[in-house]
Amino acid sequence: MAKKITIFDREKLRKARERGLTDSEIKAQFGITDDRTLKRHLKLAEQEQEARYARMEILKDAIKDHLAELRQLIENWKAGIRIQPVTVLPRVMANSITFTQSNRLYSSLKGHLPIPTFWRQYGEWENKYKLYIANCEKLQEEIRRGALTGLKLDFASDDTSNLSHLTSGLRDWILGYVQDKFEGEDMREVKFRWKDLTISLEGGALLEGKQMFSHPKGIELLEIFNQHDVDTEFYEKGCRALLGFCLSSGTVANLSTLFVDLNALEPKIHNSLEEILLRRDYILYTCNRCPGKPKLLR
């Protein structure tokens, strides 16, 4: 019974022909009895080699695309690793972490970047940044509670826009002083100015009130309605007291420490990622999503 010629045998047949062996020598070496069988398997061998080359080119392109996607992810990641000022909304701060980590390739980065010291540094930065965001949220709630207690006002909503209320500018005004403190700026003098306000209601009625602004930046802090003689001194004193309370609070002290720590870690992580991008270290390693690595889908 003639020996069965496998795909591996055909590859050896093709290489034997390339080495210059004659048909008789090849037939004798592989136990083939006739020329027709030899020609058929040599033709199959050529077709199989062409298919291998085609697969290799496809795989090469897929790997190139995969590495390009990884590089873009690392660049986006690096851009997102920066501490935001406390004036930024906490949910926007959190986006700098979640945007990159929501990418399905993020879990593959450790495979391409097996650098324990880098991951320890990044883990420390991420944990501190999450604490920083949590303390920013806490500070904003403390501002709201303090305003309710000291100024007897809450921040405006759709239902209270025609009633006396605080504006988001009050929060931004206080947070601006907090950020100045973190950055070592001299505290600006606290001044205010007032302006008359008239709002047209449905039916043509007019609502008279006053607006209070910071000076000189002109940030609107609050609006007062339905008071014949507005006690401007009460609101100015209340805003100063609220600002002083926030600047001396434990939450701001925690934020200040985190701000310093994060600013110390940030350039180290940036330098590491910049070095990785320049050296293309991610090319040297593989992950479970690298093209050409079969994975059982469950």
Give a description of the structure.
The chain is of the alpha+beta class. The protein has 3 domains: about 5-65; about 70-130 and about 260-285, no CATH class; about 130-255. About 60% of the residues lie in helices and about 10% in strands. It has 9 helices and 4 strands; from the N terminus they run ααααααβαβββαα. It has helices at about 5-20, 25-30, 35-80, 90-100, 110, 115-150, 170-180, 230-245, 250-280, and strands at about 165, 190-200, 205-215, 220-225. It has a 4-stranded antiparallel beta sheet with strand order 1-4-3-2. A hairpin with a 4-residue loop joins β3 and β4 (about 220-225). The longest helix is centred in the first third of the chain and has 46 residues, at about 35-80.
Q: What keyword list fits this structure?
A:
single chain; 298 residues; alpha+beta; 3 domains; 4-stranded antiparallel sheet; 9 helices; 4 strands; 9% strand; elongated
Summarize the structure.
With 298 residues, this protein is α+β, with helices and mostly antiparallel strands.
